Amino acid sequence: MLILLLHRYVKKENCNINLINFICSLYIWIKFHLKIMIKACVNNEFDSLKQVVLGISDDFGGCPNLVDAYDPKSKEHIQLNTFPEENSIKKELDNFLNILHKYQVDVLRPKNLKKCNQVFARDIGFVIEDQFFISNVIENRKQEILGLELILEQIPKSNLNHIPDHIYIEGGDVVVAEDYIFIGYSEMDEFNRFQVSRTNTLALNFISKKFPNKKVIGFQLNKSDDIYLNNCLHLDCCFQPLGLGHVILYPDGFKYKKDVDFIYNFFNQDNVIIISKEEMGQMFSNLFSISTNTVVSEIGFSRLNQLLIDRGYLVEGVRFSEISKMGGLLRCTTLPLIRSYE
Q1: C-beta of residue 244 within 8 angstroms of C-beta of residue 311
Q2: What distances in angstroms separate CA 137 from CA 162, 196, 226, 239, one per listed residue?
Q3: Do residues 24 and 108 touch, judged by C-beta distance below 8 A?
């Protein structure tokens, strides 16, 4: 509540957005030193959002060399000389931040790490029920978790999980749905062959053992290191459950038809919103739910946004086209810590 009151004051006085971000960082520091613990709670993708980590663009390192890029969309924009600049990314994140504050969400930010891309907070950790999992990510992204040190200190050790070295999983591949946990993954041969394969088979068994009362459903995804339209980097690039019973789906992102058939049966075919290959490439499914009927979407997704409005959703539009050039969108930039049913 303190951070929201301060944010409103800063906004009323027309202060610089940098001051808002400074206050957010100060708030995290105060909470840490007052030992105010975080009681994580996430049971689905759309309960009312109370607390979330939002990525930052500060000192993200600029355009990487082509050989250092690890997803095909980034590679394309590096080659086209259209890779986003820090100021553009920051503007988009700030606009998203304003929407979150509008709904009185407590927004935490990572500690700034020099020359480290910290935009996509989703992948370095995730919450299921009251358990926080520190993802085991590819080598290029290992440093990112250091930005969450102060936040992780506020989570009870009994609720903090370190994933074994041989098990790989990133938060974008984990979709929580009450009694179900959906996980995008690759079998070992493809996991070893593709740089864009981020979650392996062992992750399914690991999560199943942690939550024996839940059903863990694995979906194998189509991968490509070089052509982004042929690649589903994470499960949330082709699959997104929404609060009123709908699901955004790109069927061709799944390796096996049986998995698509399962989704049709699980959600009821009338509730499935199909997106095209080109729309998948623009990250149409990577929206973010603030509550059951409120979603944040890229303002340029006019067809999808209208479909959502027609189905009863309030759509908060925000420009995110620069961030999308790095292979992620709204869900990718967020790491929800607390969602509560209201």
Answers
A1: yes
A2: 12, 11, 20, 21
A3: yes
β-bridge mates for residue 132, sequence order: 127, 160
CB of 214 within 8 A of CB of 180?
yes
End-to-end CA distance of the chain: 18
Q: Which residues contact 192 (CB under 8 A, 6 or more apart)?
A: none
Q: Structure tokens of 306?
A: 């209208």
Q: What is the pLDDT of residues 64-115, one digit of tens each?
A: 999 999 999 999 999 999 999 999 999 999 999 999 999 999 999 999 999 9
Give the residue from 110, 112, 111 showing the smallest Cα distance to 122.
110
50 token code pair: 């109370």
Strand order in the sheet with 106-108: 106-108, 48-54, 334-340
Rounded to whole angstroms, what are the CA distances from 198 to 45, 65, 227?
21, 21, 17
Q: pLDDT digits over 190-242, tens only? A: 999 999 999 999 999 999 999 999 999 999 999 999 999 999 999 999 999 99
Q: Are strands 239-241 and 247-249 parallel, antiparallel or unpaired?
A: antiparallel
- Mean pLDDT for the chain? 93
Local structure of 304: helix, strand or coil: helix
- Within 8 A by CB and 6+ apart from 236, the residues are 122, 172, 173, 175, 184, 285, 286, 331, 332
Rounded to 5 degrees, φ, ψ at 7 are -60, -45
Instruction: Please say whether the beta carbons of 242 and 206 come within 8 A.
Output: no
Judge whether 220 and 255 are in contact, CB under 8 Å. Answer: yes
Size of the chain in residues: 342
What domains can be seen in the chain, in order of their start residue? 37-340 (3.75.10.10)
Helices (H) and strands (E) in the chain, counts: 10, 15
Parallel, antiparallel, or unpaired for β 314-318 and 247-249? unpaired
Q: In the β-sheet with 125-128, what is the strand arrangement from edge to edge? A: 125-128, 131-134, 160-162
